Amino acid sequence: MTTSIKFGTDGWRAVIAEDFTFDNVRACAQGVASYLLHAGLARSGLVVGYDTRFASEDFAAACAEVLAAHKIRVHLCSQPAPTPVVSYAVVATKSAGAIIITASHNPARWNGFKYKDGTGASAPTELAGQIEKNANESLSSGNVKRVPLEEGLKNGVIAYYEAAPVYARHLESLVDFKTLRQSPLKVIHDAMYGAGMGYFRTLLQGGKIQTTEINGERNPSFPGIQPEPIARNLSKLIGDVKEQKADVGLATDGDADRIGIVDEKGNFLNQHQVFALLALYCLEVRHERGAMIKTLTSTDMLYRLGELFNVPVYDTAVGFKYVAPLMLEKDAFIGGEESGGYGFRGNVPERDGILAGLYFLDFMIKTGKSPSQLLDYLYKKVGPHYYDRIDTHISPEDHRLISEKISGSTVTSLAGTRVVKVDTRDGFRYTLADGSWLLIRFSGTEPLVRVYAESQSPEQVQKLLAGGKELLGI
After folding, report:
1. Is 19 helix (H, G, I), strand (E, B) or coil?
2. Strand 292-295 versus strand 334-336 pairing type
3. What CA–CA distances, in Å, run from 88 to 85, 105, 161, 332?
4. Global pTM?
């Protein structure tokens, strides 16, 4: 059993049966209970949800048992549910927040513990830090209260909750389902064995649209893939789109808060392209106005769109715990990050891969354009932008040494281009004179260092990544 629980970019994640144990999960739940009691929020209750990973429902039940021991009312999801569905359940039930057992896009060996606040958004840094502190104190002292699940259900402190129907009714106020369902589109959804299975098929049924689902059964081993909707994990979806001549492929990650898009030719649209396209959809089709929020790892195409439509763009550190508060403060109509997670005004301030996918389909229908045509349309407005990323596993000692090395160096040029700005809010981001950028950042959820680059040509992107690897000494 670990002696320390550390919350990262979005909650705590660990390998099942090594550090992700029932004792540690109960300590996290005790940390939440202590926070709610101290803050005077216990009477509002809590939602507890979970994904399709190994024993997720059992870990969720363990959390419910701890909360019930403190007389905190629990809405326990009756089946695996996407994170955005659980997040909306917080608002629908007027609860103080939610615990979600999920490791999102991590490999099958991992599971995780996320906490959402009363808005349905990821817990801000201060709140996550307090829960982490409480959890570790409980872990050290062994002071964790619990009652059996059956007792909690019998006395009514715990009640099963059907989250999907409430979420579906909420989407009716945001999405033009009548037009979507009557469109002749052929859509393939890769659920990646995750909690998003069945959602697109169910939401779009009853009309002309054809929606096929692959990897749509629960399989905690995620055979052959990691449930992250990026190109290297979507070979089956890419092949099926081409073979079946589908109009588009949609992929959702393990807890369906992220979206991946495959165009009608079988080409993967990267997360930056999708972010910019969804922003353009909100601006041109939905006629939204207001702020746009991006992280430091996200595309600079947002700045070009901001200039074209005269709307402000704000950037922040990586993680929706930073994006969400800024969305609320600025009444932003979209917020997103490089991982493929996007949030929208009118919904909870949290990533929602299901809503993002529905909006993308609506963009296709309202413009009469295919995904590749939409990308061409975007590039005519903002110019071509290319992107790539390298991930490298590192040890804690390597993390320290690399950080010290880069902090102590002065970088004046990369790939033969002058560096005009250095941003160290979340890693080391170098902006070049030609508008390109390179970012070196340590993951907050995995033992990784990531190197990101965006430029006007794929060749320059690779040169920048090579320059980043040279800075890292790898």
Report:
1. coil
2. parallel
3. 5, 20, 13, 18
4. 0.93
